[in-house]
Design goal:
By secondary structure, this protein is of the alpha/beta class. The protein has helices at 13-26, 38-47, 67-75, 90-98, 111-122, 141-151, 155-165, 170-177, 181-195, 200-208, and strands at residues 4-9, 30-35, 53-56, 81-85, 103-106. The chain contains ten helices and five strands. Helix 7 packs across helix 9 and helix 8 crosses helix 9 (181-195). The mean pLDDT is 92.
């Protein structure tokens, strides 16, 4: 087994520790990069785009639902991402795979199972809980098109979209990102074009359709 690099993206220190333990059991020679927010993950993904695996919690600050997964796969299609989530709804698991995740580890599994799942992922195998029946696709066309738009955003456009979802105004976004308001406007225009919508409100509604809580309906 070659020396591998794994990114652990989760905002709970305790759970990151559990994942680290599982990773070190799964593979002896490993560099672990830990991040606890979407902004940190964006930096890590560009700096460590040779990572062998990303273990991704879907609900980190700065990203909601599947947007982080979709964005990540858009930026680095080759990088294997396994979703690690407290949400074990079968539709959520199926959606994660359709959006490009290699596998899905529920947070409730035992350490041994987690190790087994990580070993499988490093071998390029899709590990999911036994009781999930993949069957029919669950992502609707409309959602898939929005996901395509989000996957095509640049890192800065993605940050702007997240801030729009948080309800920030252009001048607040400009201040946060240390750019001019004109730059923010240009980003917003590009986001609307890529998401094929006509207003900021529509962009937020579109992005929210990739949230987890809107999915169980």
């Amino acid at each position: 087994m070659h020396h591998c690099k794994i990114v652990i993206a989760d905002d709970h220190p305790l759970f990151r520790a559990a994942l680290k333990q599982a990773v070190t059991k799964a593979t002896k020679q490993v560099d672990i990069v830990e991040v606890s927010s979407m902004a940190e993950l964006q930096d890590a993904a560009s700096e460590h785009n040779d990572a062998d695996l990303v273990l991704l919690d879907l609900t980190m600050p700065g990203a909601s639902g599947f947007s982080s997964l979709v964005y990540l796969k858009g930026q680095s299609p080759e990088m294997p991402v396994v979703v690690v989530s407290g949400n074990e709804d079968h539709n959520v698991i199926k959606r994660a795979l359709e959006y490009g995740a290699l596998g899905f580890i529920p947070k409730s599994v035992s350490l041994d199972t987690m190790v087994e799942a990580i070993v499988a992922a490093l071998d390029g195998e899709a590990w999911i809980p036994d009781d999930v029946n993949l069957g029919e696709p669950v992502v609707e066309d409309k959602e898939a098109k929005i996901a395509e738009g989000i996957a095509s955003l640049t890192p800065q456009q993605f940050r702007v979209l997240v801030m729009l979802m948080q309800g920030l105004l252009n001048k607040q976004i400009a201040y946060e990102l240390d750019v001019s308001e004109a730059t923010v406007k240009a980003h917003v225009t590009a986001i609307l074009r890529k998401l094929k919508v006509h207003s900021r409100t529509q962009a937020v509604i579109a992005a929210r359709s990739l949230d987890l809580d809107t999915l169980s309906s």
